[in-house]
Each structure stands twice: as structure tokens, then as C-alpha cells.
Design a protein that fits this description.
This protein is of the alpha+beta class. It has nine helices and 20 strands. It has two domains: 5-99, NE0471 N-terminal domain-like (2-Layer Sandwich); 105-376, 4-Layer Sandwich (Double-stranded beta-helix), CATH 3.60.130.10.
């Protein structure tokens, strides 16, 4: 729905706009000068700010506010002789929180949280040929990841080249100590990590020891000859929101306590710190970080430590409740990609041979691709 401004009333400190539904928002004059969309304020080619924010007088007051395009455009003439500022009703409404801004990921679909009693009826899935063959299939794949936190891809070539072709539909792979792309098999001994084993792995997020943990992780099954080894996916956001509703004291603890992660091997010592639940400026959950394997030693005051163990244990209980699990038996021709900032993943123990080829993607690259595809 196109946003329309019905009226603009100038006050000493702010301009008050009335919207088509009759509600109002006040915008300070300094903010309006700083956010113009006219050529004097914003470069039309790069969309970078031209206005000198730091030269705007702190006691700035507005002059004449004029509406055009049936209320879709606002123009302000400044009394100090500065070029007039023009702002769209769409930008103003988005900054006031009335509509999603142009970068808001929910423009690609509203995330659906799932857990016990509310699991996806069918696994979100897209065919490899659809993803590689056009933008529509790519859009379906990216939306699956955004909405459900994961997606299966079928008909994938069981080869390293097929994995790379699929991954590049999003962006170049993110480089880590494991390389750009990596083989995952119990037969490999390149890294001293529990993932390179046949044992059961509890649900966890990867790379808690990186300041910028990968946003996506992808596995393509190249070979499987054995029993067990199902991939486990858990919606960490669903658990966090359940805790926010049912045990808010535990939720608050996990937004506040900074937990360190580390990775150690000869010649490598990685370390990063962040809370298990990271929120944005509006209080919205943006990242879950949980990996008890890689948690580094740290000490808190006694009462704080007690609160942390209680909250961390509560999250772990939900994460290890198999009622909240999706078990996906990956076989050659199948790939699994998931949001490493939202979903925990694990593995059932197995016997036999199980070979995956995979990679990580940077969060910013995924979000950029999602926005551009959703806007097409």
C-alpha cells in the first residue's frame, strides 16, 4: 500500500505528519535535514549521503513544508538558505516503523518458527535444476532458508563441482580455517574436531569462536554407505522465543551474559565472545549462539553464574528434546543448507562411510542476495 501524508504541521522542534489513517508522527527538524532524498542530500547514483550532518545547527527549525504527489512527497524549505530537502512518504513511514524499510528481510516472507507440535508438514525443498536454471528457483530456495531457517535441495550432483555450483548461486563461500570448501568424513584427520568422527553430535551452532560467525552452512552428500548418521536440525529461534514467553528471567540472562567460544589446534587459537541470544535495537532476536563443545572457560560472580547455568541448561534441555528435532537422512543427490544464526544442527551416531562436501556463507552476502531477489 502506497503511503500518503494528509497534513504537515510545523512546530518549534519538529514537523508532525498526519497519515491517511489519521495517526501522527513527529520528526525533529535536524533529522529531516539529515535524511533528505534530494540530490543535494543524497547522491542519486551511489545513494550515499551528501548532506554534511555535522554542519546542521543543533537548534535548527524548519520553514515551509509542502506536500506533493497526493501526499507521497514532502519538501521542506529551510530558513537558513540551505537547499530544500525532499523526502518520500515511504521513507518517512519506514523510519517511523509503520512499514518495513527497504532492507527489512521480512519483505521476503515472515519467518515461521517451528518446534514440538508445530513442525513443517513437509521439508522445505527445492530442486537443484530449478535453482541453477533461473531466478524463480533461486528465490524459492532463499525464501525457504529465510522463512524456515533451512532448506533441502534435491537432485544435486554428488560431486565437489556440483556443490560449488549450488553454493555460488548465493555468493562465494566464506573462508575459514577449514578453507573455502571442505570435505567432512570420519576418515579425515586434518582437524581435531568432533565433527570428524562417527559419534553423536548434540545440536549446536558453528563457529562460536569467530566474531562474525558464518550465516549459512551447507552440506552436500557425496557418499553414504552405512546406518544412522541422520542430520538433526533444531529451530533455535523457536526455543528462544518459548523461553522469552515462559521463563523471561532465563531469556534475559542469555541476552546479557557474554559467553566465550574458542578453537584450538596446532598453529590456531581462535576466540570470540557474544551472548547466546543477540537482539537488535528493537529487542528482536537476530542470532542464537550455542556450542557447549567449544565454550571457553570463564567465571562469573556466584549469583550470576548460578543464573547462567540455569538459563543455559534450560536452553540445552529444549535443544536436546527430540520432539523439537527434524531428522534428515541425507543421501547422495541431497544437500542441506541452514541458517547458522538461527538453527542448531547435530548428527546421529553412525557406522559405515559418510562423506559430505560443504561450505559456509557470510551472513551479509546471504542477506544481500535475499533482498535483491525478493525485490526483483
Amino acid at each position: 500500500m502506497t503511503q500518503r501524508i494528509l497534513s504537515a504541521d510545523a512546530g518549534a522542534d519538529a514537523l508532525t505528519l498526519q497519515w491517511q489513517d489519521g495517526s501522527r508522527d513527529a520528526f525533529p527538524w535536524t533529522w529531516l535535514r539529515d535524511h533528505g532524498e534530494d540530490e543535494a542530500s543524497l547522491d542519486p547514483d551511489t545513494l550515499q549521503r551528501r548532506v554534511d550532518t555535522f554542519a546542521i545547527p543543533a537548534d535548527l527549525t524548519g520553514g515551509t513544508a509542502t506536500l506533493a504527489d497526493d501526499g507521497a512527497t514532502l519538501t521542506i524549505d529551510w530558513p537558513d538558505g540551505a537547499p530544500a530537502s525532499t523526502l518520500s512518504a515511504e521513507r518517512l513511514a519506514a523510519c517511523a516503523g509503520r512499514i518495513p524499510h527497504e532492507g527489512h528481510l521480512d519483505r521476503a516472507g515472515t519467518p515461521i518458527l517451528w518446534s514440538a507440535g508445530a513442525m513443517p508438514n513437509a521439508l522445505p525443498s527445492v530442486a537443484f535444476d530449478a535453482i541453477s536454471g533461473g531466478e524463480a528457483g533461486l528465490a524459492d530456495w532463499l525464501r525457504n532458508i529465510h522463512v524456515y531457517g533451512f532448506s533441502v535441495v534435491t537432485g544435486v550432483p554428488a560431486s565437489e563441482a556440483g556443490t560449488v555450483e549450488l553454493a555460488k548461486r548465493i555468493a562465494p563461500a566464506k573462508h575459514t580455517i577449514f578453507g573455502d570448501y571442505w570435505l567432512l568424513s570420519a576418515e579425515l584427520t586434518d582437524h581435531g574436531d568432533t565433527a570428524y568422527s562417527t559419534q553423536y553430535l548434540e545440536p549446536h551452532t558453528d563457529s562460536t569462536y569467530y566474531d562474525d560467525a558464518p550465516g549459512l552452512q551447507m552440506f552436500n552428500c557425496l557418499e553414504f554407505d552405512g546406518k544412522g548418521g541422520e542430520s538433526v536440525v533444531v529451530d533455535g529461534f523457536a526455543i528462544a522465543e518459548k523461553m522469552r514467553a515462559e521463563t523471561p528471567e532465563h531469556f534475559e540472562t542469555l541476552t546479557r551474559v557474554i559467553v566465550p567460544g574458542r578453537y584450538l589446534e596446532p598453529g590456531v587459537h581462535l576466540r570470540a565472545e557474544r551472548p547466546p541470544f543477540r537482539l537488535d535495537r528493537t529487542g528482536r532476536l537476530v542470532q542464537v549462539t550455542f556450542n557447549n563443545y567449544d565454550r571457553a572457560p570463564f567465571l562469573l560472580p556466584a549469583d550470576e553464574l548460578s543464573a547462567f547455568y540455569a538459563a543455559y541448561g534450560e536452553f540445552h534441555r529444549h535443544a536436546c528434546d527430540q520432539e523439537n528435532w527434524l531428522k534428515i537422512p541425507l543421501r547422495p543427490g541431497m544437500a542441506l543448507i541452514f541458517d547458522n544464526w538461527r538453527c542448531l544442527h547435530g548428527r546421529m551416531g553412525y557406522v559405515g562411510k559418510r562423506v559430505f562436501y560443504g561450505c559456509y556463507h557470510d551472513r551479509a552476502d546471504f542477506e544481500s542476495r535475499l533482498r535483491t531477489v525478493a525485490a526483483a
